[in-house]
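It is worth pausing here to work through a concrete case rather than discussing structure prediction in the abstract. The textbook approach is simple: state the sequence, then state the predicted structure, then interpret. We follow exactly that order.
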Amino acid sequence: MKDYLVLFGVGIIIIVLFMNIFAGNNDRSRGISGSFSDPALTYDELPEEPSKEKIISSLQQSDPSDAEKLVSNHFPLIDTVRTDQGISKVYVTREFKIPELANLLADTLEPDEKSDYNNGKQVLVYPDHFVIMKESEEKPGVVFIELSNDQFVRNHYSPGFFNGLLTYAVLNRMLGSSNWAENQAGRCRASNDCYGGYTMYGGYRSGDTGTFRGSTGRGGGPGAGK
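Step two, the predicted structure:
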């Protein structure tokens, strides 16, 4: 009888250990958002947009006071990556190539910095926000417009994401630090846990291990919900 009780106790301990192991792995896979969810939106379900001509006309007639209004008033919101150390809102368009879009946004509201177009990406830097335009890796013709506040970029982005776009000196100046890029690059190499831009199925770590999920959903912007 005692042998059965011992075996039963050992079995309970093993079950508890397995539950803790799998729970721990699941938490790590959630990334920085702290809220993990399977994507509810697919490329076939992207929000409708006004025509390219209407978007251009609307932007040209607008007078946005900041980068958030510049983007949110004219493009549909598809996702939000939120942590206790910043927020990044993701908008989408299928009406523009990135260089044309970057010029249009910069002409509407002049940025502090404007990168060149390189490797499917371009960046506009405004006070308090980075506007990061990135071509979809899964679907040709889809462009993500990620509106990341300075806090999010400072705490989560890998400086390597900006290679060929913004120099370390520019990044340091825009983020109010003398050595942010160097320090963050070292932290990213050590932890393999930095943000490397948005994909349809969640922003991903620079090391491609796990995802940073947001609160996937529709809303905001013209044409949303149609």
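Step three, interpretation. The chain has seven helices and eight strands. The longest strand covers residues 86-93.
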